[in-house]
Amino acid sequence: MKGIYMKKLFICVLLVIFFGNTVSANVGFGPAEMYVTNNPDTHIIGNATLINGDDVGKYGVFQLMMPFSDKDTFQISNSEIMHARVLCNDCGKSMQRKDVSEYNHERLEGYCPVCQSDNLVFYDVLPRDELQMLSVIPSGGFHLKKIDDYTWVTEEKISPHGYCNINILYNSVDSYLPSYLGEHWEFHLRGKTKEGDGNDFITGGLDLRVLLSFKFPLDIELCSDVVKGEEFTVNIRVTDEKNSFYNELKKPVTVEFNGETKRTDSEGKVSFMMPESRFDYNYTVHVLESDLYLSENYVVSHGIQMFEKDFFGFFSFFQNIYVIISLCVIGVLSCIIILYIRKNYVWE
Q: Which residues of the chain does CATH 2.60.40.10 include?
């Protein structure tokens, strides 16, 4: 009897191992890694595909992984820190922090194990506040429902050997803090499939590593009139998605116009020559994306005067304050008028 029992136990172990590998092999989720930046226009920072490799239809599950060892204090686990991505700007080597030679956690310093360069980019764990700004939406014929703070499930089953595409969203509209300029973060998104439509405990799956570089938008301000055959100047400033502030550049940026490329000066300004032409054409001033700033375009043509942009730019900057002050003034004047009428008007 003992021999029969051991034989059955051995067969069960083999079945578990076999089907466990089969389940993992029948799920595809990728790409495995992506490098992205915040996107003020659409907030879509990337897309991914979940593949159902089984012979039966299954629901797709997408889950943002929590990098915290303590959900009450949100203490980041040491394993997450040491496995965070590091890039060498000189030789392009991609590694983890644990692979960096002479790694110093406090100063984020070390040397590339390949070329010995100290020109490294250290990705950090995404801050807790920014984790709240992440979400996923379907890209195609599927619908997603949120079943937990960081978990989404398809409402329809993915057909056998079919796939589901999603977009990864990062709503950065309120995230433009001075300390975030030039930050590099990473987070993990897990994808898997399941047969049931219940909110059962989700295990397994494949992870997608998203490496996010946080960059600030730019504003292009016209500093002189645009006239054919004459030089005009633009001023490049740092702003946010709501244009609620304008700051000077921390580093110069590269600007292109009509085939010519220049760098901004210490004041963030750059000048170009407007081409001579019989007809009026539009030309684009294009600021290239850099390690700190997103790209930006501004269209100019003959006859555009600097006050046209400055005037509207002024009111776009002060529009919220302007409305508030106007309402306050109207309210105060209304109270004064009412009090004056009550005091001086003789009611019959």
A: 23-84+123-213
Alpha-carbon distance of 135 to 149, in angstroms, equals 10
| Fold exhibited by the domain 23-84+123-213 | Immunoglobulin-like (2.60.40)
pLDDT of residue 8: 40
Q: Please state the pTM of the whole predicted model.
A: 0.77
CA distance 281 to 283: 6
Beta-carbon contacts of 21 under 8 Å, excluding residues fewer than 6 positions away, are none
DSSP H helices in the chain: 2-25, 78-82, 128-131, 306-344
Query: What CA–CA distances, in Å, run from 83 to 76, 112, 185, 251, 339?
Result: 12, 15, 13, 30, 70
Q: Does the structure show a pLDDT above 50 at 93?
A: yes
Q: Where are the CATH 2.60.40.1930 domain residues in the chain?
A: 218-308
Token pair listed for 140: 């195609």
**Which residues, at least 6 apart from 264, have a Cβ–Cβ distance to it below 8 Å?**
236, 249, 252, 253, 255, 270
Cβ 194 vs Cβ 58: under 8 Å:
yes
| pLDDT of 311 strictly over 70 | no
- For 20, 149, 155, the CA distances from 59, given in Å and listed in that order, are 18, 18, 7
CATH no. of 218-308:
2.60.40.1930
> How many residues in total does the chain contain?
348
Residue 315 neighbours by CB under 8 Å, 6+ apart: 322
Q: Cα-flanking dihedrals φ and ψ of residue 289, to 5°?
A: -65, 140
Task: Reduce the DSSP state of residue 27 to 3 states and report it.
Answer: strand
